[in-house]
Fold each of these.
Amino acid sequence: MHRFNIQPEKMETIKATRFETNWKPTLKTHIASNVDKVIENIQNDKPNVKVFTDGSGMAGKIGVAAILYRNGRIKNKIHYQLSSQQHHTVYEGEGIGAILGIKLLQKEWGIQSAIIYIDSQAIITATQLMKPATGHHIFNALYKHIAKLCKKHLRLRISIRWSPGHKG
């Protein structure tokens, strides 16, 4: 190993499965097929908190943002620039946007229900996968943050729903 400069202590270990076989996702997800119905549902949903997240590429950089609404008003927001598109993808940005949304929820008190709206159906689907896939480390981190959040808010019902990006 010395000859090829291989350093086992610096290697990443990737498990064959992300979770145990009896794992059940703690997140409920929903991807609707009718855009107009989705917009109507967003307006009619009545959780304690709504969080909208997004990841995007612009001017060669990947950025992410999350906005938390409580009682119909913006209460908190966060944004972050990952780096250049040479090192990150919009897919990663969308996943990290979900983590930022959870971070905003961790700052709140007295939450019983929350919906996180994400405009990427691929990200929503990836939150439910048991097998390792592209960017699974992001979703592992997401579930760690959700576990921490659920310890603070014992009866929290949290779900992720698809929302059409940049519409309505």
Note: The chain has four helices and six strands.
Amino acid sequence: MRTRRSSRVSHWRSLLVGVVVAITVSASFMISEPDRVRVATFTCGGSADPAWPDGGFEVAFQANTTNLWTSAPGGNADWQLGMLPGTSPAIAALPGGGFEVAFQANTANLWTVGTSGCRDWRLGMLPGTSPAIAALPGGGFEVAFQANTTNLWTVGSAGNTAWPLGMLPGTSPAIAALPGGGFEVAFQANTTNLWTVGSAGNTAWPLGMLPGTSPALAAPVAAPFASSISGINAALANRMRSSWRPGCPVPLSDLRYLTVNYRGFDGADHVGELVVAASVASSVVQVFRQLYTAGFPLASLRLVDDFGGSDDQSMAANNSSAFNCRPVTGGSRFSEHSYGTAIDLNPVQNPYLSGAVVLPEQGRAFTARPPAPGVILPGGAAVTAFARIGWTWGGTWTNPIDYMHFSVSGR
């Protein structure tokens, strides 16, 4: 681990050598409200993939050189990016792995660096203040900071917002991701009162804060993920009579029954079940672990046998499922589901499209791919989780397009 980490430090030093020059000469600008946020992407010599030690931690800090550093048991990294002296970085562990750091650069601009690469947001912060960052349940992150207008701003995966709310100059906000989705920010208003704003609502608390201080914020910690893998016993085989029959391409002995925790659209935890090929059972559990950790919601996760083996009925019920010995939609050859090597997630939010055909019909409202809960989007939690085990997403097909579908073979 130490050797790999040391090579990564050297790699970043070489890739970022020109960045310190760029960050020194770039100028921050005054944010003009209510103009839309202008975002500039800056990649530090390539995509970043910082290591994250299993079961360990990562520390971000301003070194006595004023550069940003990250440090962990496996090694240290000098990012060679100058911070404004006297400010502090914020760091968040991302649900899918890796981390993201937010900080005020020596240009007084907001910067983020980490797993997603390096970005100069071209947004001026009030000099001397520090940002806050939170990883979001659905993937990505959100940053809260005091702009150089002294107003509160939030930027990131959940959107960019210039809140028309003045902060007491020199103070810093706090931000926390909410288990059910979204985030909440706490800060000292320019009245010196405490305010909270975000997905849980906006409240002007009639409570005075000591001038110049900053609040802290925390959200409930979710219960740990749980799962199980077992063979197909006699009782389950009897239950699966509508999804498996003699002549199917895999015997029951090559299938495994999985139970996994998942987050529902109601924000609560549920226990789901699915059947997959024995060869992919462990990797599929890892996918659902990542979906659970990211807070990606599922409407239902039941065996297709609960719907008489009918794919149409299962989709109409917005049920996520895996094994079902059936032909491909509109064809005669066995579907990848017949081998236990394909999974469909949230069919209503992620429909199958072929010309004017939309399956299920309720999915027609989601053909425009709105960024709504349960919708699978490029780079999102679901696509990332399946890509890590080598599965392909049907949302990348041209005709048909199967937004709900992930498979080993890409079919």
Note: The first strand starts at residue 59 and ends at 62.
Amino acid sequence: MEQAGGRLELRVYTGGPVPIYAQIMEQIKMAVATGALARGAHLPSVRALAAQLGINPNTVGKAYGELEREGLVESGQGRGTFVSSKPPPVAPGSVDRAFETAAAAGLAAGLDPRALRERFDAALERLTGQAGSRPRRK
């Protein structure tokens, strides 16, 4: 996902196992998490994003609706849809479940626990810009 010239650039893949609305949601969540989309940023209208992606507007509407239910975006009649100015509430255990899902996928792909930790640390460094985010062992 890119923010090119003020235009939200998403990529969706049809025919895959992940529904298109879920792909849109995940890319917007990632953009917010990484700062590519700032709090309060205006999102494209449902029709504009649907036209850009070549998909049904109902699909974009579903993604925006789910993101609003999760508290990540806010919308209002005539105002449009915006990234929420406040962080959405984190459901207890949701971060742990996400880590477990990612770890299970890595283990299933044949990575060992050390390789998983290295990848996790690298991801944190990319997201936070802070190298050495993990205390070093002596």
Note: The longest strand covers residues 73-76.
Amino acid sequence: MTISSAQVYSPSLFEPKEHSIGCQCPGCCKNNPEPAESKTVNTNEKSDAESSQSENSKTEKSDRELSLGERQQVTQLQQRDSEVRAHEAAHIAAGGAVVSGAASFTYQKGPDGKLYAVGGEVSISSSGGSTPEEKIAIAKQIQAGALAPANPSPQDLKVASSAALMEAKARQELSLENQESLKQKAVNAYSQNQDNIINKNELEKLLEA
């Protein structure tokens, strides 16, 4: 029976008598496997990659964990947020000078962890106006700002009603001022006329003399 030399291991024939570092003889290769350190590095790299994939998987899973009802709630909150912001923006745009400061909002946290505006308000000042004309202009501006949104709230209607009352009072003041002015003009005209009569009489007396 013939035995192949490739299958025979004979230290006396194949191994050198002295072995150096990095020797590639069959005996050294068998007795000195690959360093454990390189295997550890590869294991760590694999662990980091798996950890990163796991975190991404958890994030994606968290997004998918919302139920159908929760998704509908998020959609409703998004719509409400847009409506509220548009509503307050309309107040500010139409209110002009009577608007004091920026809009403030009330927020609600959705199932997705985000905050959505569900309410808002804009401060309007009715102060100022030293004359009835100025007060009327301010009242009109307040009404325009309050009724600017497509769907004014009950509070908006209340503010507009108060502004309308303010305008009515200012117009009443203006009417009284106009009446007083007309009376004063009539008195002045009468006084001027009397002065003219007196002057005329005195002139006639002088002519007669």
Note: Residues 65-125 form one domain.
